[in-house]
Amino acid sequence: MTSPQWDRRIRRAAELTSAYPFAAEGLRFYARVATVQKNLYAEIQKALADSPKTSAGRPLRDELDIFLLLPNFLPFLSLIENIAPVPLANAAVRMAEKGPAGWQQAIEGFWHRETELASMMDNTEEARSGDSLEATASERLLVWIFLQPYAEYLAINREPTIVDGTPSTCPLCGGKPIAGVLRSEGDGAKKSLICMLCAHEWNFRRIYCPACGEEREPQMAFYSAPEISHVRVDVCDTCHAYLKSIDLTKTGLAVPIVDELATIPLDLWAVEHGYKKLQVNMLGI
Ligand SMILES: [Zn+2]
Ligand SMILES: [Zn+2]
Predict the structure, then answer these.
(1) What's the gap in Å between 144 CA and the centre of ligand 2?
(2) Residues forming beta bridges with residue 245, ordered by sequence position
(3) Residues 212-234: pLDDT tens digits?
(4) Which of 10, 96, 198, 271 is most buried as measured by Cβ atoms within 10 A of its Cβ?
(5) Ligand nearest to the CA of 60
(6) Using alpha carbons only, what angle is made at residue 34 by residues 30 and 36, rounded to the nearest 5 degrees?
(7) CA distances from residue 279 to 45, 236, 239, 244, 258 in whole angstroms, order as listed
(8) How remote is the CA of residue 60 from the centroid of ligand 1, in Å?
(9) How far apart are CA 266 and CA 229, in angstroms?
C-alpha cells in the first residue's frame, strides 16, 4: 500500500485549483507530477519492502540505490516530457539523450550535492549565459522531482532520529526547508520546518532565521494577506531571505507543501519587497 500522503497532496491540489484560480495552471501541473511521484514511490516501496530499516545515526544521503533508481529514470523522463511546460519538457528530452552514464552522474551529483555547489559557482560566473543557467536549473528540477519520493521513503523507513536542538537544515538529509508549519500547542502554536527533499518535518524556533541565524525580533517580521490568511511570509531583514509558513491552527485542511505552491501572490509580494526565497519550489517559484 502506498503511503496516503500522495493522495492527500493530489486532492489538495485539486481543491486549491478552484479556490485559487491564479495558481490553477501550476497546481494542475503539480497534481500530475505528484501522480508520477506516487507511482515511483510505490515502485521503491515494492523493491525495498524487505530491506531492514536504516539506523538512526546514518545520514540519509549515505544511501543511494542507483541500481533501483536508474531503470526508472528514462520512463520518468518521458512522463515528464508529456506533462511539463515547454522549458522542463525540453530539459527532459535533453536529459534523456545523455544516456545511462549521464543519468547516473546527474542523480549522484544532485544526491551528493555537487550540482548544488556547481550551480552556486555558475551564478557568480558572468561568462555563463542566461540560457544555460536556466537549462541547468531545469535539469536540477527534474532530478529533484525524481529523487524526492526516494528520499521521502528513506526518511519514513528508518529508525527515529533524536534531533539535537533546532537545526536550520533537515536533520536527516541536510536539505533546505521548503516551508514552515504552525501547529497548535497549548494556548499558542509551535513551529516546524519541512525538508525540500525528504519531506521530514522537524521542530524549529518561532523567531529565528533559517538562512542566517538572525534571532533579534525587530529583524524578523511576517506578512499575510486577508484573502490567504492561513499562509504567511516570514521575512528576515538582515539577510532578506523569506520562507512561507502554513498555519494549521487556522485551517487543518491545508497540506503545507501544496498550499505553499498555491499562494503565488505572497511570493510576488516578497519579491517586490526585495526578499529572496530560501528554497525555490517545484514550480520554480
Ligand atoms: Zn530531509
Ligand atoms: Zn536571515
Answers:
(1) 25
(2) 180, 232
(3) 999 999 999 999 999 899 999 99
(4) 198
(5) 1
(6) 120
(7) 27, 14, 14, 10, 15
(8) 8
(9) 11
